[in-house]
Amino acid sequence: MPKLNIESAFQKLLAYCQANDWAGHDPYDALNSRLFAALPLLNRRLPRLVLTQAVKRSPLNLRGLLLTPRTQNPKALALFLSALLKVSRDALTPPAGIVEHLIERLIALRSKGFNHWCWGYSFPWQTRTVVVPVGAPNLVCTVFVADALLDMYEHSLSPRYLFMAVSAAEYLLRELYWEEGSTRAGFSYPLPSVRNQVHNANFLAAALLCRLYKHTHDETLLEPALRVARYSAGRQEADGSWKYGEGASQQWIDNFHTGYNLCALRSIGDSLQTEEFEPGVKRGFDFYRTHFLLPDGKVRYFHNRTYPIDIHCVAQSILTLLAFEDLAPQNTSMAHSVLGWAMDHMWDERGFFYYRVNRLHKIRTSYMRWSQAWMLLAMAALLARTNKNKPHSRTPVAEPVTVADRIPAISTLHP
Q1: Is the full-model pTM beyond 0.85?
Q2: How far is CA 226 from CA 142, 144, 145, 162, 208, in A?
Q3: Each residue of 312-369: pLDDT tens digit?
Q4: Which one, of 79, 203, 221, lies nearest residue 144 by Cα?
Q5: Which of 83, 109, 251, 263 is the most exposed place for a label (fewest CB within 10 A)?
Q6: Quick one: residue 156, left, alpha or beta (phi over 0 = left, psi -120 to 50 = alpha)?
Q7: Where are the alpha helices (DSSP H) in 217-366?
């Protein structure tokens, strides 16, 4: 897509998200339904699963009938923040006050009752085995918020953002990290009590710890990060793929979680200046490009079938292609093709992206976290790549300091 068209779509999507106060529905927010809450006899595992899947898969948005409110989701706010910081160094300066507002909302939405900074989703959600309460902190949400705060730290050099990110890492290490013998280690997800090996969760947490090590020089971050990263790297299949996890019900291979794995491993390598994981990264990217990307710009959700085409996978495909441009010079051109296909088939002129294209129909619902936040970040990354020859923001230099030294200072930042 021409740069001007990307800028125009970016600005229109940004205006849409801002006009909605960054709040919206989510594919998994069915249990926020006030109607469902009024029927306590239905509040059981099977009805929760059925309702969530029925609402998620429906081509019609049933949330009005179910009295499901729009909410601000911390992960969405973090993605918006990261997107705006990517373009802030170029001519696409965000409107005044947006970055500050997003940070204020992230501070307000931190999970209550925890000593460390951590975040959860704005809805309760039922997995196949457990229900996760609304606002309960989880690894993925916390990592994405902490990464956005690190983006802000690198942009502004203000230590308050580093303090919060370090506290989030401390939450991961104290509440979620576990070891089993000398060979197994991981991070619990989605609750501290759940010790399934979910590889993207392991990689995301390890990448955050390594990124923090780059800024704090705290050696205590490295051992758990590398132990977990090496474990999950060792579970890569011979063809370069990863199953989602090691549980019996986690044996699928999908686009965006594979993209998470690859981008996290590349981040670890960049933070530590190591090529330890590069052979696996190269095999993984070859698998990714071969199985998830189609010549006309379509992207697959699963590695072995075309449909559904999911907007989150569109965004992650763009981000993954850009992250590995060094492995294939045509990646930026492919990223433009992916965005062009999405604009032709999944863009609503009111300023947002549809959720999914199925074989026989589209789901045109607008989801703030799953769809709009991810696409704003992907377009920001594409614009930043287009302007990559412009000066970048300053690289902060942090004095060596341990995580423990920073924790007492965090409570003094925001009463």
Answers
A1: yes
A2: 19, 19, 21, 21, 11
A3: 999 999 999 999 999 999 999 999 999 999 999 999 999 999 999 999 999 999 999 9
A4: 79
A5: 251
A6: alpha
A7: 222-233, 255-272, 278-292, 311-323, 331-345
